[in-house]
Write a structure and sequence with these properties.
heterodimer; A: alpha+beta; outer membrane lipoprotein receptor (LolB), chain A; 2 domains; 12 strands; B: about 475 residues; alpha/beta; Alkaline Phosphatase, subunit A; three-stranded mixed beta sheet; 14 helices
Chain lengths: ~230, ~475
Amino acid sequence: MKKTGFNLLLRSIVLLPLFTIANHILAAPADALRVEYHQWKLGKDGVRQEMSYSELLYRQPDSLWIEREVPEAAQRSSHDEHHHGGLGHKHDDVTGAPLWIVRDTQGKLDVKLVDRHEKRVIEIAEAYYANVGFDGHWVESWNLADPESLKKLKPTTVSENGLETYEIQRGNQQITLVWNPKGQYAKTITAKDSKGLSGRTIKASEITSPKTLPWAQLGNYLSRDYSDLLD
Amino acid sequence: MKRSFLSGAILTCVAAMSANTLHAAEAKNIIFFLGDGMGPVTQTAARIYAGEKAGLAVPETHKLAMEKLGYAARIKTYSEDAQTTDSAPGMASYITGSKSKNEVISMTPDTNPNDPSGNAYQVNGDSTCPTTNNGQAVETLLETLKAKNYGTGIVSTTRITHATPATTYAHICNRNAENTIAAQMVPNGAGYNTRLGTDGMDVVLGGGRRHFLPTTVSGGRRTDSRNLVEEMKTAGYTYVTTGTELSAVNLATTNKLLGLFNASDLNYDLDRVKSSINEPSLADMTKAAIQVLSRNQTGYFLMVEGGRIDHALHGTNAKRALEDTLAFDAAIKAAVESVDLSNTLIIVTADHDHVMAFNGYSKIGNPILGLMRDYVTGNTTKDKQGKPFTTLVFGNGGGPREATRAELLEADVLADDYLQEVGVKLGSAGSETHGGGDVRLTAGGAGSQRFKGTLNNTDIHGLIKQAMGL
């Protein structure tokens, strides 16, 4: 009985990694996420400023769509203020417009901004990545964290459903990151500074992917480039 | 009667002398340098940045080539209908002597760029400007000189159909009708601007190939099926598309030169150098243009635009703006070294300011793109959130997509892609606006002594004509 118990323990030690590996191999990464961002800062004047927004991520192995969720009232307000037509440079407003990033087999990125209102797909050259809020990092954008970096760390806990929690100290920032190895994304990232003056939270949840992916709906869009947004 | 006759003769003689004095030609050639959006803060910051690159102990003491020109003036830039101009009337005021409404290219002040409902008079680059009751073309300095057989050339780092270069050779109610603007430069083609004579301009160097090529060609945007590159070649132009090709042209025997080095704008100078992109520098293009034009015995008009300073500022990307300002300054230096200043007038100015500000009390020698450090303690200065900030910031702009910034580090803010923080958040990428403040003008060479004091941008046209004896 004792021996059996030992065997069971041994089996579980051996099988647990196998189970985990199988999960990694067989399970497909989550193909659609909703990501909520929240940050706050406390100033020396005692004023606490908070900000939150959310984005939808549609993920294929070499394609990523990032779309800010803009409530309808805010969209309407923006459009009411602006005149539309042709390539007018003064009133182009692509605030929160979706980003579509495609990675080729060599790892080269093709970044596009999708202007649904003017029905334009705007090619973004590397020099303009920052202007559209893309830092050029495919992996971090796709996974919300770099899995290779996490491999160098040891999780502090692993939950029953396989979620790995990492505690990371970076400067005066205490970061807690929960990694979903099956879905291949950071489920939550919480960072706060040691003085309690600022904090930041990212929460991702899996959602149902649309039947038709958004990049398949751009057939009649004009092809433009970033210079069309400039005067 | 006799007395009257004598008085009349004396008066006539004095008037003639006076007129001769006013219009004696001092300058045979004019090179007009336009740093698009290069306001005073951009110029100051570029000066310090150049001083840092030169390794000066006190970078603030550096002098740009444009600042070594002997005369300086302050220029009021408002347009016909806006306190803050855009590049179209901003440049057109210099080149025509007449104000016009924003978005209008070298037309009378009554010209409207949009219909009464606010819809632009252009669709996808094609003009829909009414042919009647919407203003008249105003002659440009380039056209005036072309009619007198001067050589004429334009050089830009933007599309050559973009607002600033377009004001020299085109007339249209809406600057965005760039397909139509391109057609205005093609000798004897449909839509040609006949004020450019029978043979057109002599040198055209810049970007904007897409407005010369039909949509059937990759990247082309012309909807009328015309291939203006082929038409320009037929009209006698030597055509080049790369820096290598430009350097291979025998400029001593080339009379008509067209270089279109990018489908749209040329790359920022930072990226051109860093990624070894095969595009000529602005200095290379300027030297080539001078070499071709200076064979004209009558003289020449050359416009050189550092056009992408403006674009980087719209993107609140100070580093690329400063790098492009230095590339612009290098072109000025090359021109000063190439020409005879006893017969050539060089003017350097901007069409408008931007809203970049030089803020705080930074210590002398502090990197201009870096975090602000207090001049007394040398420590990083903090805002009320306890966070450091940069010396250069913007009054408004789009900023990065992310809603707020993280704690800034020196390495972050010195990076190529760092976007400065903005005050009023306008949201969209590239949405930082022009500024309505005055800009600087510096002048050197023949006839440059006229350019001083506080001037309206429209005054410059007349002063150049005086200097050239027109």
